[in-house]
Amino acid sequence: MRVAVSGAAGRLGRALVAALEEAPFAGLAGPIPWARADLDLDRPEAIGALIERDRPEVVVHAAAWTDVDGCARDPELARRRNGEAVRVVAGATAARGVDLVLVSTNEVFDGRRVDGRGYGRDDPPVPINPYGASKLAGELAAREAYAGGGARGQLAVVRTAWLFGPGPPDFPTKILVGAERARDAGEPLRVVGDEWSCPTYTVDASEAIVELLGSGDFAGTHHVVNGHVASRADWARDVVTRAGIDVEVVDVPGSTWVRASTPPRWGVLEPTPLPSGEPLRPWPDAMADYAPTLLRARAAAR
């Protein structure tokens, strides 16, 4: 199976390429990485030539503009990069009978749920910020492309949340920097305590997507997240403890800081079953695997 990955230089894209390199079904040549130089979200019309050049059977579209505050400051650009670009990509893949896996987000939901349950794949999405709205526009565009009579491939929408892993500064990296500054200033580290979700390791999310592809039958909507729910402050305490930084983490409301974007307070996704029937591990177990890489990277950056 020839699998192309867009956004291959991003945090999730790199993990996807690495996971696919270990997948027997990817063949000796391995995955086809498409970085921004190959497929730029501001010029998505290049997708047709890419497909003709590389002949993938599946495209995993992980490329996206994920700067949620940037999306809030420029909603039209967000719509073009995360919505219209997907329309072009999905139109090209569907017309050629190429399967598409579209990576999406928990932020397609409004986060106003109060029953303690995660959002299921059949719950109606109602985004409350431009990032979520742009990603939902992409989902709808992809579904429209594959609903047409001429579409012959499969479409999977994979929603995930709070991704962490090697790459541009992720939440754990930012917490390490903030914790060191707070410690040196003799102050507590103040972290939002009223936003909740499922921190998800890019390695685990990628392996789940590879498992879906390997099953051969992966059409539909999938919620792929590590187990257990955490607030931002809960997550920060885990990071600080693993790093051995002597600083108090204090919960504060999200309203403490003014942001361009309004994040969903309850951004929890209900995981959907994978073909193996095994759920992803709890996020603290994933953090235990990631911590050595995280701490080495932080030490090198000092």
Structure description:
With 302 residues, this protein is α/β, with parallel strands linked by helices. The chain folds into two domains: 3-162 and 198-223, 3-Layer(aba) Sandwich (Rossmann fold); 165-197 and 228-301, UDP-galactose 4-epimerase, domain 1 (Alpha-Beta Complex), CATH 3.90.25.10. It is 41% helix and 15% strand. It has nine helices and twelve strands. The strands form four sheets. A six-stranded parallel β-sheet has the order 2-1-3-4-5-10, with helices on both faces. It has a two-stranded parallel ribbon with strand order 6-9. α1 (11-21) links the parallel β1 and β2 (32-34). α1 packs across α7, α4 runs parallel beside α5 (130-147) and α8 packs across α9. It starts with a strand and ends with a helix. The mean pLDDT is 96.
